[in-house]
């Protein structure tokens, strides 16, 4: 087995990269989209479904799994892979974003962040070290450092102070689990808000530390698409070319393509799974909402160009009926298709980088998804 953390770039097409990241639970072909499984499950899908659609890695979340069922309970059951019977790679977010984004009282200090549980209001405290210890208990293949994701609209002064603390926290995370001390990888997270010089400073400080990969944080927090793209194109090239680059919390199909064109290798977002549950489905011809009355007697598949279980076996009329009747199968079939669509899109992206046609692929989807 290749040493976990090894990242090889096989081909490039412009700034887009085709690579392979090795982890203790197998290799990840990049660029890659990572389905979000916040509580150790990708809502409404089984590990078998995810393997069938060639999901290579899924996300878990430190904040949620620490609060319920508890990271130590998971550790006693052999870790998150064994507990959830997902034997491919897992990346866990550190909880920083959840603590800052979920409502509720929290107190931030140099030591860490105090917050209340969204389940029972009980008080908890995450230090950078604690956030890493939880991820060690979960046994995730890629751990994220504890960081502060400043809100959209934070002023320069606050953003600057915050990024300096995020760097100090990143150092503490790395010291808690030094590079090479085990099979788990650790990624640093670049902050700096929407100030390019602060993003540059954050990247310089973090990239001097021995992380196996680097994430672009602090985006997809309510900003406009052009603002997000501007920061992605500014920040991605600042990160080491020989390490994987992960853009957190992004995004739509067009966002994925734009990020890859900037040199991003890994992405995650709740959009495909969350939108599936409200009937918004992504297809090769653009987005459709299955609620529409127009589909009431439409016997055609959701997407004639999609080879997924949903598109091969059910009509729009039936999918609309399930949605309107609030049937559980609606969640499952819609989520299956949306994630299959995202994963298949990234397979097309990987192929296009290998044969130098990425720009054409991106243009084709821009036409299909033109506002
Ligand atoms: C709050 C919730 C559930 O998280 C999703 C989702 O809503 C929503 C709401 O609008 C969409 C775009 C659909 O995604 O925004 C979140 C996705 N954006 C995002 N996730 C992030 C995760 C992060 N983790 C860390 N450790 N540090 C970060 O800086 C960070 C930044 C991030 N930005
Ligand atoms: Zn489909």
UniProtKB/TrEMBL annotation:
Domain tRNA-guanine(15) transglycosylase-like residue range list: 15-369
Keyword Transferase: yes
Residues binding Zn(2+): 306, 308, 311, 337
GO BP: tRNA queuosine(34) biosynthetic process
InterPro entries on file: ArchSynthase1/Queuine_TRR, TGT, TGT-like_sf, tRNA_ribo_trans-like
Gene Ontology, cellular component aspect: cytosol
Residues holding substrate: 93-97, 147, 191, 218
Keyword annotations from UniProtKB, A to Z: Glycosyltransferase, Metal-binding, Queuosine biosynthesis, Transferase, tRNA processing, Zinc
Highest taxon of source: Bacteria
GO molecular function: metal ion binding; tRNA-guanosine(34) queuine transglycosylase activity
Cofactors that this protein relies on: Zn(2+)
HAMAP family: Q_tRNA_Tgt
Catalytic activity: 7-aminomethyl-7-carbaguanine + guanosine(34) in tRNA = 7-aminomethyl-7-carbaguanosine(34) in tRNA + guanine
Gene name, Swiss-Prot/TrEMBL: tgt
Region (RNA binding): 249-255
Protein species of origin: Pseudodesulfovibrio senegalensis
Active site: 93, 268
Protein name stated in the entry: Queuine tRNA-ribosyltransferase
Assembly behavior: Homodimer. Within each dimer, one monomer is responsible for RNA recognition and catalysis, while the other monomer binds to the replacement base PreQ1.
Pathway(s) served: tRNA modification; tRNA-queuosine biosynthesis
Cofactor note: Binds 1 zinc ion per subunit.
Family: Belongs to the queuine tRNA-ribosyltransferase family.
Enzyme Commission designation: 2.4.2.29
Known role: Catalyzes the base-exchange of a guanine (G) residue with the queuine precursor 7-aminomethyl-7-deazaguanine (PreQ1) at position 34 (anticodon wobble position) in tRNAs with GU(N) anticodons (tRNA-Asp, -Asn, -His and -Tyr). Catalysis occurs through a double-displacement mechanism. The nucleophile active site attacks the C1' of nucleotide 34 to detach the guanine base from the RNA, forming a covalent enzyme-RNA intermediate. The proton acceptor active site deprotonates the incoming PreQ1, allowing a nucleophilic attack on the C1' of the ribose to form the product.
Pfam families in UniProt: TGT
Entry annotated with the keyword Glycosyltransferase: yes
